[in-house]
User: Fold this.
Amino acid sequence: MSPAHPPSAGGVNRRHAKTITQKTVFSGAHFGILVLGIWLLGFGGWETIGTLFGLDSSLPNPARGWFLLGVATLYWLRHTFTLFSLLVRAVDWAEVWGLLVFFSLFEIGFILIGAGAFWNTPPLLTALDYAGLALLLAGSYINSGSEIQRKRWKQQPENKGHCYTGGLFTHSQHINFFGDIVLFTGWALLTGSFWALVLPVLMTYLFITQHIPALDTYLENRYGQEFMDYAAKTKKLIPFVY
Assistant:
């Protein structure tokens, strides 16, 4: 690959490659996080940890914890579909292990927060939960829907080597990232704790300061004037705002 098309941009490998082993391990280990969640909630795992470290191991709101485990399962299904059906770039081992640490921290953390392991949470289903669920589903659609639209367009021979600017990407250059922000905001609200909103705020900051600038440089090198014309008339991340 020429210097004009760097293999790495935005913290990930942009080279087109299957990397089936890495993707299989990624999906399998991600499923293992769900199994850990089941053990913590249903098989005395949190009580065992509490006894071991002399902590209060009560889970006063297990229903919310199980609901959040269901949300994590939906995310795992989407993640696996993305890895094997939508993602054409390589997945390096560093990305696999780094994201697995991130997934385990926030998914298990959200489950335990929702179950009331650290402080009291309200019972399901409050008005805020309905809002959170709506955001979760909307963000999932925006993220996966935009990627599916792009994949189908890229599969047409006449579009090879061109920058996709249609569908949901007409509203934002990085509408898939915006979908993640909406999704994680809804997920955080479903924990019943406003402290969880730190995660989507941090994600938004990292998208704006780290991932998007690096990815824009890659896209400009790859597509040239075609991308620059698109960027000049399209919001960068948040439709109608930024």
Remarks:
- The first helix runs from residue 20 to 42.
- The two ends are 32 Å apart (CA to CA).
- Helices lie at 20-42, 45-53, 62-86, 93-114, 127-154, 175-189, 198-223, 225-233.
- The chain has eight helices and two strands.
